[in-house]
Design a protein that fits this description.
about 350 residues, alpha/beta, Rossmann fold, Helicase, Ruva Protein, domain 3, Arc Repressor Mutant, subunit A, 5-stranded parallel beta sheet, two-stranded antiparallel ribbon, 15 helices, about 45% helix, globular, binds adenosine-5'-triphosphate, binds magnesium ion
């Protein structure tokens, strides 16, 4: 009887996974789709590639349009979970009172009109795979407690239900808000923040990676135009001078606009929005690499050290002795640094 139940339960899970795939719970993009060579950007990407090999929670930080969505998909597709569901949910787009049942599902009779047998939430749908919690800063405080419990206990309880259902899900969260400030003002729980922040990846705004603009223009132009790719110098220069508040999404839209307005689909300054042409920002055509070593801020050095530490521990499957050897530092130093950064190596296995 018990074995029968397990088989049925397995069958239900398999069906849920299939359903998840058909309702758009798929990640199409991979690291090959991510364009950019500036140093700060490449550091985040290298870190993401290392992090993909672990099961640790990841927090993606960056302004709107900097590529958090695409990166979450790439991480999933580079992880051992790639054949299982990828479920994305935008915490800011669902009415607050529905977030709990969307994420955790509900039990039969949980509320008037609840489906017979209840309903699975996104966490159950993502079982075996990855859940992408976009706009995590918008998550109501009471649900933050719930989410923290899920991350710690690896079980969920449906709304109105009593049973703890085991789940195996990797969490990737993203925000374009300043979460640290939200913690300071009491809008975001610090315990959840530290739990999610084990691996945090910063996606720099496009204005800080001007050197990547020419290759991004080429990349998007080739998506809208089949002929020979020619990028006029004045066109490129204007785009390199602009400040891109909407980041890469805005750049993609501008190229699409130019191509669709241009009768022969050639890129021409005439088809750029007048406001964009007018911008008179000094041109720094130098690659948006980094500041010189002497100018590096302490934060950058600390970030780079933390990233190297995490990447090495992940690539050594949590083995501190091997990580220390790779980094050329003593084991005790690794432990001391882990403590200083508040990292639990167990989270990186
Ligand atoms: N490095 C990149 N290379 C190629 N395309 C990119 C890159 N970064 C972003 N894009 C493209 O730019 C668009 C916006 O990216 P994405 O949706 O990932 O941004 P986001 O950070 O999630 O923004 P938001 O905060 O508004 O949700 C997408 O079409 C994405 O494919
Ligand atoms: Mg997004």
């Amino acid at each position: 009887m018990r074995l029968g139940c397990i088989i049925i339960f397995d069958e239900i899970r398999r069906t849920q996974r299939m359903v998840a795939r058909y309702v758009g719970a798929t990640a199409r993009l991979t690291f090959d789709d991510i364009i950019g060579k500036s140093a700060a950007f490449r550091r985040s990407i290298a870190m993401a590639q290392a992090a993909a090999r672990s099961d640790a929670s990841i927090l993606l930080l960056g302004e709107s349009g900097t590529g958090k969505d695409i990166l979450a998909q790439a991480i999933h597709n580079a992880s051992s979970r790639r054949d299982n569901p990828y479920v994305a949910i935008n915490c800011g787009a669902i009415p607050k009172e529905l977030v709990a049942s969307e994420l955790f599902g509900y039990a039969e009779g949980a509320f008037t009109g609840a489906k017979r047998g209840g309903s699975a939430g996104k966490f159950e749908m993502a079982d075996g795979g990855t859940i992408f919690l976009d706009e995590i800063g918008e998550m109501p405080l009471d649900l933050q407690v719930h989410l923290l419990r899920v991350l710690e206990n690896r079980t969920i309880t449906r709304v109105g239900g009593a049973e703890a259902i085991p789940i195996n899900v990797r969490v990737i969260a993203a925000t374009n808000a300043d979460l640290k400030e939200a913690v300071d003002t009491g809008l975001f729980r610090s315990d959840l923040y530290y739990r999610l922040n084990v691996i945090s990846l910063n996606l720099p705004p496009l204005r800080e990676r001007i050197g990547d603009i020419p290759m991004l223009i080429r990349h998007f132009y080739s998506q809208y135009f089949d002929g020979q790719i020619v990028i006029p110098e004045d066109y490129e220069e204007i785009l390199c001078r602009y400040s891109w508040p909407g980041n890469i999404r805005e750049l993609r839209n501008i190229i699409e606009r130019t191509v669709s307005l241009s009768p022969d689909k050639r890129l021409r300054v005439d088809y750029l929005p007048p406001d964009l042409v007018k911008t008179k920002k000094p041109v720094h055509k130098a690659p948006a690499s980094e500041t010189s070593p002497g100018q590096k801020s302490i934060t950058t050095v600390r970030d780079a050290e933390k990233e190297a530490l995490i990447a090495s521990i992940i690539s050594n499957q949590g083995n501190i002795t091997k990580a220390a050897k790779d980094l050329g530092i003593a084991r005790v130093t690794v432990y001391r640094k882990l403590k200083a950064y508040g990292i639990d190596p167990e989270d990186l296995k």
